[in-house]
Amino acid sequence: SDSPGGFEINLDHRKLKTPQAKLFTVPSEALAIAVATEWDSQKDTIKFYTMHLTTLCNTALDNPTQRNKTQLIRAAVKFLETDTVCYRVEEPPALAELQKNEWDPLVTWAEKRYNVTIGSSTSILGPNIPASTKETFVSHLASYNMWALQGIEFVITQLKSLILSMSLIDRHITVEKAVLLSRLEEEYQIQRWGNVEWAHDYDLCELRARTAAGTLFVHLCSESSTVKHKLLQD
Known about the structure:
By secondary structure, this protein is mainly alpha-helical. The protein has two domains: 2-62, ATP12-like; 69-232, ATP12 ATPase (ATP12-like fold, Orthogonal Bundle). Helices cover 60% and strands 5% of the residues. The chain has helices at residues 29-40, 52-62, 69-78, 93-114, 131-141, 146-159, 162-169, 175-182, 184-193, 197-221, 225-233, and strands spanning 2-3, 6-8, 10-11, 14-15, 25-26. It has a three-stranded antiparallel β-sheet with strand order 1-2-5. A hairpin with a 2-residue loop joins β3 and β4 (14-15). The two termini are 36 Å apart. One of its GO terms (cellular component) is mitochondrial inner membrane. Keywords: Chaperone, Membrane, Mitochondrion, Mitochondrion inner membrane, Transit peptide. It is a peripheral membrane protein. Interacts with ATP5F1B; involved in the assembly of the F1 component of the mitochondrial ATP synthase (ATPase). Interacts with FMC1.
């Protein structure tokens, strides 16, 4: 239901509350519907670990780590220093080749899209990311609200990559592709040696679910994302 603070969720005529007992209100109707759907799909026992949107809303409302916007942005940009797609192997050559073919186009896209220099490295220390690149990402992320930023950080922690996350949130790649690219080494090993079927499939589905939920959350919390998206396409 619509309330001054946003949209509330009512479960069996009870108002939903956060873990810190705040009234559960969300900024957009679409997000409220998505959260209600998560609750509706729960059966006899409530499995919170399957309710990623609800969890993200709780995080945004309660802010358990008590970080402000600047701290959230800095934490996100810090991932550039250890970004999955920037760390390359030299051995085995087949994996090095795979990383080059799959990750290079993404890095190139990000450099053009954000007008920055990123690069990649086979050094254990990773690439030397210019300070100007970090500052550009800081100001880009500052255009998002606190809710969206919580979602962005959630996606980044799933994919261990700011570049993959931004490509996904900017609708340059799909969730499936982003997840695959974040697990390139694992996928390479599996193609080579085979895998423990159920464990791998479970991990993959779980990672996809989390990544999809985080991306959806960001889009539902950035009211102007459709406008932004249109402007980018023109």
